[in-house]
């Protein structure tokens, strides 16, 4: 039942976005009775929190290309591909919009990204082992920097994102890490 | 009258955010008759577009510290100070939320940021002249990189921003630029 409700939540978000996420719509789509959905998930934010919780627990396809530059490029391209996907893209946008309007949804989204940053930290750990970047490089900060320009374009400046934007963000994050600008005690 | 309506728009946004931006509230606050506000500004998005248009035309206090690192740090700290300000912060958040929900507001916000990127380009032009970064460095991309991690934290991951986060984002953008990762034809 939880899977059915989650699938229905994602489908409704994909088609109608956050403003269209009503418990009734999810109940109808999932075949679960609406009083059950209300009792277990409460409201739209409860549905989003659960969908994000499941998503956060799923392993991210962390790349292992042999270089930090290649790994960061693959991570950044994953973000671009996700937002370009006709099903996943609207859901991801809906999650961000929900977080801007609801404290519960925000907490769920933040936990999701914290988990993503943790999962991706291994690409930086490997780069430290290979001697590509200084020991003490802040892994989460490298990952943030590789994807932040893409989210900035999408949600703030409204500029397009594509593989070139992904590659450039990844190259910049890699260069900053190699220069020692992203160690735990940042270079002034 | 335009100034009065703009001041009222910012005050209502600051206190009630985008969901609370009603033409009636702006009319009452500004002392301009609501039929006039409706006729000239149309709706909440028209009010936001006009407020952003005026803001975009205002010069940004572009720093000139003598080094690219110093200038980028000052720019990033301006963003942190803006969001920390009890009046400006809620308005800036409301603009982003409005853009996520309205095409008109999005176009206004995007024009605002395009103008900001143009205004800030001079700090990169000076750094090229001083030989700090390679000729052909993409000025807008350096500025994006210096502020994107702050917006990513605020609007996507929900992580706090402070002067340390600003300094780190600025240092990373400067390091990437110096390494040649932000030239018009990006280093692979």
From TrEMBL, chains A, B:
DNA-binding residue intervals: 22-41
Annotated HTH tetR-type domain residues: 1-59
InterPro entries linked: Homeodomain-like_sf, HTH-type_TetR-like_transc_reg, HTH_TetR, Tet_transcr_reg_TetR-rel_C_sf, TetR_C
Pfam families, per database record: TetR_C_11, TetR_N
GO function terms (MF aspect): DNA-binding transcription factor activity; transcription cis-regulatory region binding
Protein name: AcrR family transcriptional regulator
Annotated keywords: DNA-binding, Transcription, Transcription regulation
Superkingdom of source: Bacteria
């Amino acid at each position: 039942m939880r899977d059915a409700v989650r699938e229905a939540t994602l489908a409704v978000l994909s088609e109608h976005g956050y403003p269209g996420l009503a418990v009734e719509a999810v109940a109808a789509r999932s075949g679960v009775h609406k009083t059950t959905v209300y009792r277990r998930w409460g409201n739209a934010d409860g549905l989003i929190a659960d969908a994000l919780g499941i998503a956060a627990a799923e392993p991210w396809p962390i790349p292992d290309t042999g270089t930090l530059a290649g790994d960061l490029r693959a991570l950044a391209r994953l973000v671009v591909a996700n937002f370009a996907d006709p099903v996943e893209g609207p859901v991801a946008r809906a999650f961000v919009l929900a977080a801007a309007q609801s404290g519960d949804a925000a907490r769920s989204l933040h936990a999701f990204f914290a988990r993503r940053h943790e999962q991706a930290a291994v690409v930086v750990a490997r780069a430290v082992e290979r001697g590509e970047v200084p020991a003490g490089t802040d892994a989460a900060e490298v990952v943030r920097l590789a994807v932040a320009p893409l989210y900035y374009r999408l949600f703030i400046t409204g500029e397009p994102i594509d593989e070139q934007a992904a590659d450039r963000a990844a190259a910049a994050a890699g260069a900053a890490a190699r220069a020692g600008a992203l160690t735990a005690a940042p270079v002034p």
